[in-house]
From TrEMBL:
Limits of the Polysaccharide export protein N-terminal domain: 49-124
Keyword Repeat (UniProt): no
Keyword Signal attached: yes
Top-level taxon of the source organism: Bacteria
Keywords: Signal
Record-level Gene Ontology MF annotations: polysaccharide transmembrane transporter activity
Protein name: Polysaccharide export protein
Organism: Teichococcus wenyumeiae
Amino acid sequence: MHVRPRQRGIPPLSSMSRRAALCAALSITVVLGGCTSMGANLPPLPSEPAGPYRLGAGDQVRVTVFNDPRLTGDFRVSDTGSVALPLVGLVPVQGRTTEQAARQIEETLSSRGLFNDPSVALEVLTYRPVFVLGMVERGGQTPYQPGMTVLSAVAVVGGFNYRAVTDYVGLTRIGEDGQAHEYRAERSALLQPGDVVNVFERRF
């Protein structure tokens, strides 16, 4: 009678051993996943060439209509993106430069028959604010200043707190399509009025 020799090597895993190995692998995956900082997978903030400022809701502007003080004054861009001028009504300025907005007002004055050849100037008095949320000492809004960066905006609201991710932030910005888009932005990234900065919490 022929007897097969006993095979040497690693014995097969029992069902319980296989389950234990699977649980260990899953645990490692969860731990490694937890080490990934919040917001790290967001797309990077695209670099945009410097260009003229474009008006948006919340901006305070001064409109000067030369030779007619009745139409000259300070106005706020409404939530609908318009300024309400005396004798004229609503004039849309959302997304326009100050020069384009001034020309739009001139066209409106001409079309209403108020002036034959109006001359208008428009300047920004106060920009709409930037909002800073998350792991900072005092979250909230802060007035935008030209040249403001992520780091300077965080500094205005008291700086990062001890639980903050300090290398980058989440930044939500309204795109040209009118929709909000969220990006990962470095500390040195330049802000735009209306941006929302979200400082993430460290996992460990």
